[in-house]
Design a protein that fits this description.
The complex is a heterodimer of chains A (about 160) and B (about 425). Chain A has about 160 residues and is α+β, with helices and mostly antiparallel strands. Chain A folds into two domains: about 15-70, Orthogonal Bundle (Arc Repressor Mutant, subunit A); about 85-160, Glutaredoxin. Chain A is built from seven helices and four strands, in the order H-H-H-H-E-H-H-E-E-E-H. A four-stranded mixed β-sheet of chain A has the order 2-1-3-4, with helices on one face. In chain A, strand 3 and strand 4 form a beta hairpin. In chain A, helix 2 packs antiparallel against helix 3 and helix 3 (about 50-60) crosses helix 4. Chain A is elongated. By secondary structure, chain B is an alpha/beta fold. Chain B is built from 17 helices and eleven strands. In chain B, strand 8 and strand 9 form a beta hairpin. Classes of the chains: A alpha+beta (about 160), B alpha/beta (about 425).
Chain lengths: ~160, ~425
């Protein structure tokens, strides 16, 4: 288990107003769960057990229910990740265009060495991701919210310069 | 206008006319290009009139199933006794498919207009546009366009007539291929795990939040404004082969072609011409080995079958595959079909929601057996085992994810058996460590 620290709740002030506005879009409170989890992750970088309890309280759900939903979706982080979270598509269309070489280049140049681990300087985490939906622009890569098309192994060092 | 390439003279540019044209993204730019006239016309036609026009057009669902759109809309209750919903499926994640992404990036108002026309036709109070979480740019563009639509009184409190009572919201996904399955998508909107639901009840009877719901793909809805302004008969005329397949289709071409990208052609366009003419042929002058024409969930075609295939719903079935979502994955002579089929199976194993045993276990074991073969430890009986497994994964589960994993395995073994045998007999050196 990761060490959890007590935080001020995410859902106060403007964030609470934003969540309340989102809740008006749906007939149930439960439906605001995915948006609430996105807000939590944006604020904290990942979703801890405490964070899930917080979301559960604000939406009148049980923490166990929230955990069930969090663990279903791959984009919610259940543990802290590097400051720059890198996702490389390696599904078939990208794979046949050299995606595995792109992954290797990222692992080498970020210093991560292995998939899913964070570099010693805390800057990078690299993972393989299933189809990013940009197959004609192989290989698409996401660095946090940035969606970058047509990445090749040779372009990786230059691309990483932007995130140093 | 094409994107990222210029339109080819043999393309029939309807949905992709403004791809690459940044001004078309804005409300003003869209209106200048004739936008939102269709919506006005649709309101004048009334729900029944809109449904009739779409029925005449022959428009079929572009997400993969090819179900007639007008007919789907007509399943919604005519007498409204409770809330009705429209869900726009923008969870595009079928490997090989990247058309909805371009529609949203370049012509967000075309999608909004299509949604509102459909919403009017099925008397829906709310549209949820479910966009996959990884689509950060389309999400941003669509959010901005929806805000503009409210601001300019296209929909919501500033609008007039039936549009005043309507709302349109973006719902951001969080990483799950299965949420592109319509009932899983509804569960995800409701704040649940994205597990598909058993049918019946069908969404038109009990959909999202238990209310009558219609789910349409982005490309389907984006075609609707054109059908309203130019007429169902006009759309029906966009057809090169079977009259049951009408209109244009955006084909996303990826893999080993010289010019990958989206190409818009009339239904019935020859796959051979798409590859060798529009896409500039196979990269580096290599020979073609295989094509998956409808996204990764459909059977693989060999070179001969691909070159004879006409791209519409019936033409693909005749060639032994399906048009699906129109994601065309091209493999040249250098592709290792055994490895790539394993990689596809791995995708399905990763994306299985794990509700059904046949899928949860079947996808995982398919990967393991294929990896055993790739590691040089395969036996001939493994091929029969894979086929037996595939048999038990087809038509046995709540949704078709399991069937989708079986399709490339079965067609792959049938059409490229010698490649599997080469690993098993040791003719080909192992490419994976033993697992």
């Amino acid at each position: 288990m990761h060490e959890t620290t007590k935080h001020e709740t995410v859902f106060t002030g403007d964030a609470r107003t934003r969540l309340s506005e989102i809740m008006t879009r749906y007939p149930t409170k439960r439906a605001a769960l995915l948006p609430a989890l996105w807000m939590l992750q944006e604020a904290r970088g990942w979703i801890s057990d405490d964070g899930m309890t917080e979301v559960a309280q604000v939406l009148d759900l049980t923490p166990a229910y929230v955990a069930g939903v969090v663990t279903f979706y791959t984009m919610y982080h259940r543990h802290p990740v590097g400051r720059h979270f890198i996702q490389v598509c390696t599904t078939t269309p990208c794979n046949i265009c050299g995606a595995e070489g792109v992954v290797d280049a990222f692992l080498e140049h970020t210093g991560c060495g292995e998939l899913g681990t964070t570099s010693a300087d805390g800057r990078f985490t690299v993972i393989e991701v299933e189809c990013l939906g940009a197959c004609g622009f192989a290989t698409p890569v996401m660095v946090n919210e940035d969606f970058i098309e047509s990445v090749t192994a040779a372009k990786v060092p230059e691309l990483l310069e932007r995130y140093r | 206008m094409g994107y990222p390439h210029k339109s080819h003279p043999r393309e029939t540019v309807v949905l992709s006319e403004y791809f690459g044209d940044a001004e078309a993204k804005t409300y003003k730019g869209w209106v200048k290009r004739g936008g939102y006239k269709a919506l006005e016309q649709a309101v004048g036609l009334g729900p029944a009139g809109v449904i009739e026009e779409v029925k005449i057009s022959g428009l079929r669902g572009r997400g993969g199933a090819g179900f007639p759109a007008g007919l789907k809309w007509s399943f919604m209750p005519k007498e409204k006794t409770k809330q009705h919903y429209l869900c726009c499926n923008a969870d595009e994640s079928e490997p090989g498919t990247f058309k909805d992404r371009e529609i949203m990036r370049w012509t967000p108002h075309a999608l909004i207009e299509g949604c509102l026309i459909a919403q009017h036709a099925i008397q829906a109070d709310i549209t949820y546009i479910y966009i996959r979480g990884e689509f950060t740019e389309p999400l941003e563009v669509m959010e901005r366009a929806v805000a503009e639509a409210y601001e300019h009184g296209v929909v919501g409190p500033n609008a007039s007539g039936p549009l005043k009572e309507m709302n349109i919201y973006i719902h951001k996904g969080a990483g799950a291929y299965i949420c592109g399955e319509e009932t899983a998508l509804m569960n995800s909107i409701e704040g649940r795990r994205g597990n598909p639901r058993t049918k019946p009840p069908f969404p038109a009877a009990a959909g999202v939040f238990g209310m009558p719901t219609t789910i349409n793909n982005v490309e389907t809805l984006a075609a609707v404004p054109h059908i309203i302004t130019k007429g169902g008969e006009w759309y029906k005329g966009l057809c090169r082969s079977n009259p049951k397949s009408t209109g244009t289709k955006l084909l996303s071409v990826c893999g080993h072609v010289a010019k990958p990208g989206n190409y818009e052609v009339e239904m019935g366009f020859p796959l051979k011409d798409l590859l060798y003419d529009l896409c500039g042929g196979i990269r580096d002058g290599n020979a073609l080995k295989a094509v998956i024409p409808g996204g990764s969930s459909v059977p693989i075609l060999n070179e001969e079958e691909a070159e004879g295939c006409l791209l519409d719903y019936e033409g693909c079935v005749e060639a032994g595959t399906m048009l699906g979502s129109g994601g065309v994955i091209v493999f040249d002579e250098t592709a290792d079909m055994v490895f790539q089929i394993m990689r596809l199976a791995k995708f399905y194993a990763h994306e299985s929601c794990a509700q059904c045993t046949q899928c949860r276990e079947g996808t995982a074991w398919t990967v393991r057996i294929l990896q055993k073969i790739l590691a040089g430890n395969g036996e001939m009986k493994d091929l029969d085992l894979l086929l037996d497994l595939a048999e038990n994964m087809t038509g046995k589960t709540i949704c078709v994810l399991s069937d989708s994993c079986a399709a490339p395995v079965v067609s792959g073994i049938k059409k490229f058996r010698s490649e599997f045998e080469a690993y098993i007999t040791g003719v080909r050196a192992p490419v994976m460590a033993a697992v």
